[in-house]
Amino acid sequence: MGFGGPGHGKLKFDDDEAKPDISKALLLRIVKYFLPYWKQTLLVMIVLCISAVLGLLPPILIQHIIDRALPDKNLQLLVLLVLASLGTTVVSGLLGVVQNYLNSFISQNIVHDMKNQMYRHLQGMPLQFFSGVKQGEVITRMTSDIAGIQGVFNSTIVNFASNLFILTTTAVTLFIMNWKLALLGIVVVPLFIMPTRKMGNVRWKLAKETQEKISEQNQIIQETLSLSGYMLMKLFTKEDTELTNFRTVNAQATRLQIRESMAGRWFMLVLTTFTSIGPMLIYLYGGYLFIQGELTVGAIITFVALLGRLYGPVMQMTNLYVDVNRSVALFERIFDYFDMDPLIVDSPLALPSSAEGQDIVFENVNFAYQPDKPALQGISFTAAAGSLTALVGPSGAGKTTITSLIPRLYELDSGVIRIGGKDIREFTLHSLRSQIGLVTQDTYLFNGTIKENLLYASAGATEAEMIAACEAAYIHDFIMKLPEGYSTVVGNRGIKLSGGEKQRISIARVLLKNPPVIIMDEATSSLDTVSEFYIQQAMHQLLLGKTSIVIAHRLSTIMAADTILVVQDGAIVESGQHDSLLADNGMYRDLYNKQFQEKASAT
Ligand SMILES: Nc1ncnc2c1ncn2[C@@H]1O[C@H](COP(=O)(O)OP(=O)(O)OP(=O)(O)O)[C@@H](O)[C@H]1O
């Protein structure tokens, strides 16, 4: 199965209204997760079986109290029977504890295994996946969906086994005691099986609708109360719209939840009446048999008590298919993710290779994010080893796309990219990416200290190396002025730092990594002269002696470039050096006049 991605119709969360097809293959796949814990599962089954048998004892002991100990006025027997009843209860309780432990052990371990598998799998997903997937969906999948799996074991499997054992042991006992009475008690069972099934269907539908509303609600929260979403909402003064949205969805969710909890209350009333018909019949016919001298009082009481043990599991088991459907749907949602191919993986022939001092060559590269909408067409150029190649062009021309293809964040459709004559697909992904330093416009810093952010690039770097990198990136002095220096926490995504500072930290981070290839997207935001100066100095240090490809937004960069590539509509339309391109009177000249000249006067 291929990577479907959103829009390819592979993911099913939106139409999971439909009940899953429970195929043999799917069940086998689910069972696989339980296999490592088969011993514990077997133990749970044994415990459940013993508990079911033990549960029969108290009603039977009561029969003996009523029919033997009391009429015989036998105090010793009475005490013995009461103690036995007490003992059974205590042992049942202890078994319950053991079973609880085993349940948690099995279900939590399965959740643990699945989370690890999912995390590993998601790490391997291509960038397309993350840009296409709805906000918060990955987290939902990782947390609530997988966490739901533990409920599957507890509520579905254990419940089913427990009910089955209770049902069979009770039914057998009833038939042994008196088959005619047993038949009478069982005759009413279909009366409540049918409506229970119907009700189960209604509840299943309501539960689905509620679940959808709640995830819609979560999505609004995640989109509007995340850092960037919040800023968007504030800047576009959309608070009222979002509040109305939220209130509407919240009200719908509340209504559904109330309906869900009320569904079946009336029905339960009818059901209770039906379930009390059984005991009535037993009292009637059992009473008749008592009058005839064929049955004891104790037997009648025991019979009615056991009948309760029979009806409970029957009702629960008629709803079982709802639980099974829900559980299988949960597994399916998770498997949908597992089934997406990571797409970009090491080819079998890939070897760790060096990019040090090598040319980067694009040969007739074509690429499209979406079929039939080419983003790059016939891109060919050489970024000579140790040289600076500047990409310029209007917004949306394809500059970022070109740079994304080098570390294989996306896979090209045709053509080839070579480093040192070698197709980049022959590099292992690890060796390829570890030799490329990427400085993006939107610098990503995680919420930790400056030091932690810097060392993310090379965990083994010494304090002196870190400081040297920061000095080269012209950020050391700034960091030292902060109250906590390198231990300053940068805030969510580095919000506490200015754009220029963030980019310099990100330059320091790449300097620390010291890769032979640098890809940089210069910040477009205009900086004050001082920051501008620092950034330029930092860049100069960064690019020194490296093979660099820079999406240029500054005059100084294009002036310093060995080659300028002018990109338009996904193609390279001009290339050369500043002076000759300017003399050509073409696209570059236009662009220069529009984009760079005013900045030249500003700086
Ligand atoms: N993840 C994506 N999925 C689909 N289309 C995309 C994606 N990223 C970019 N595009 C499209 O590909 C084209 C090239 O985009 P790209 O980001 O490479 O342009 P750019 O020259 O870097 O622009 P800018 O200077 O504004 O960053 C654009 O039309 C853009 O809409």
Automatic annotation (TrEMBL):
Domain of life: Bacteria
Keyword Protease found: no
Topology of this chain in the membrane: Multi-pass membrane protein
Residues passing through the membrane, by range: 42-62, 74-98, 164-193, 266-285, 291-311
Presence of keyword ATP-binding: yes
Annotated localization: Cell membrane
Keyword annotations of the record: ATP-binding, Membrane, Nucleotide-binding, Transmembrane, Transmembrane helix, Transport
Every ABC transporter domain range: 360-594
Coiled-coil regions listed in the entry: none
Pfam families: ABC_membrane (PF00664), ABC_tran (PF00005)
PROSITE patterns with a match to the protein in the record: ABC_TM1F (PS50929), ABC_TRANSPORTER_1 (PS00211), ABC_TRANSPORTER_2 (PS50893)
A GO term from the CC aspect: plasma membrane
Domain annotation ABC transmembrane type-1: ranges: 42-326
Listed GO MF terms: ABC-type oligopeptide transporter activity; ATP binding; ATP hydrolysis activity
Name this protein carries in UniProt: ABC transporter
Organism whose genome encodes this protein: Paenibacillus borealis
Taxonomic lineage: Bacteria, Bacillati, Bacillota, Bacilli, Bacillales
